[in-house]
Amino acid sequence: MVRESIEFCESDCIHEDTVREVRSEMITEEVSHALAEVFRALGDPTRVKLLYALSRRELCVCDLAAVIGASESAVSHQLRLLRTQKLVRFRREGKVVYYSLADKHVEKLFQQGLEHVTE
Asked: Which end of the chain has fewer CB atoms < 10 Å from its terminal CB, N or C?
């Protein structure tokens, strides 16, 4: 099998100083797993649509279901997964439950991802 030079170094050389520096700043296993879970949650088109809708404004479960064309049960299930990853939060007003993005970090992450794929 021929290795393309664009994908691999042509010689095996380890830049010890560089490796040491980056390794000293490396995230922990716990953090890497948590971040992977966040990106896994973002890896579903239905959840992406929910996050997009919530990036526009706070919405109740019924309105979210109508916006994305899904059942309230399906939306509730997806929102539960997003809540577990701390991507959305909710508040209750009487019998209505309203959802919004959890914080500015989620909004920024979503907007940057959207910009990346639409450029």
From this structure: N
